[in-house]
Amino acid sequence: MRPGKYPTNNQALALRIGRIEITLISDGLIWLDGGGTFGLVPRARWEKIMPPDESNRVPLSLNCLLIQCQGKTILVDTGLGNHLTDRQRQDFGLDRDRGGLTQALARVGVVPEEVDIVINTHLHADHCGGNTTFRDGSEELAPTFSNAEYWIQRLEWADATFPNERTRAAYLTQNFLPLEKTGRIRLLNGDTRVSGEVRTVITRGHTRAHQSVVIESEGETMLYTGDLATLAIHFERLAWVTAYDVEPLETIETKRRWQNWVLERDALVIFPHDTRTPVAHLRKDDEGSMQIEPITPVPTEQ
Ligand SMILES: [Zn+2]
Question: How far apart are CA 148 and CA 145, in angstroms?
Fold first, then answer.
């Protein structure tokens, strides 16, 4: 039996950063081995925070971020998608009680054709699976967001298309290779400005060219961590790093820098997989230890 206290699927949550409207939407929930999510942290410590099910699995939501600014619709990450085999769905423990990303977008009034830019934080299957889809009964995968340009770091593309024995399982080529022949990929070379108020930043560690997304508008700021911090607790505690990170020591140093950046600006931080604390502030107490302070945005849909 699964522990009963996890929300099975998130409602869309709307937030405003200065004059930018953002909506956190979900492609569903997956259940993965707790050892993957918590790496070297002993189970005795993490199970108090996130009780696993009887198969030692913990729930991870597949959050994606919709950004609407200056007439542009930007989508950050695309979840697991809808073209997995039954076996893959089972391996991920995919749980969608309200449909996937496309349905979640529809509930906030966005159709796939409206999306102008898709940003993949990295190309692991749970962040770019919704990039491609089988359209109109075709047996060939096509871009789900047919009018969008897909923004992917050049080095991440290289690592995903030429994986090694350690990295191969996380990259499913059907999520990104079909985009190549459409000419709709923009390969990025490091930190990149998306608009006057939105930019991507390299946050190395989970992968070599992992990127996060920053919004700075009218004195307010937000960091969408991607898997720099899979859960809020990973951002609070520097040593808590997932087993999937290819450069765990880099992750720690990158988190240290971004913790300071967030504190200096009192930025809002959004996490890709946290079912209970997807949005938070970070606080530093008198002894200098970091504390996540969850915030509860207002659900936008019925
Ligand atoms: Zn992930």
Answer: 5
Cα–Cα distance, 69 to 180 (Å, whole number): 27
Residue 300 has pLDDT above 90, yes or no: no
Looking at residues 221-242, what average pLDDT do you find? 98
CA of 1 to the centre of ligand 1 (A): 24
For CA atoms 230, 232, 234, 238, give the dihedral sign.
Answer: positive
Expressed in angstroms and rounded, the spacing between residue 127 Cα and the centre of ligand 1 is 6
Span from the CA of 197 to the centroid of ligand 1 (angstroms): 25
- The protein residues having their C-beta less than 5 angstroms from ligand 1 (an ion) are 126, 227
| Alpha carbon separation from 230 to 79, 101, 244, 277 (Å, rounded) | 13, 19, 10, 11
The model scores a pTM over 0.90: yes
Please name the residues in contact with 245: beta carbons below 8 A apart, sequence gap of 6 or more. Answer: 39, 205, 206, 227, 251
Torsion angle defined by CA atoms of residues 255, 261, 262 and 263, in that order, rounded to the nearest 10 degrees: 110
Residue 287 Cα to ligand 1 midpoint, Å, equals: 32
Distance from the CA of 273 to the center of ligand 1, in angstroms? 7
How far the first Cα of the chain sits from its last, in Å, is: 29
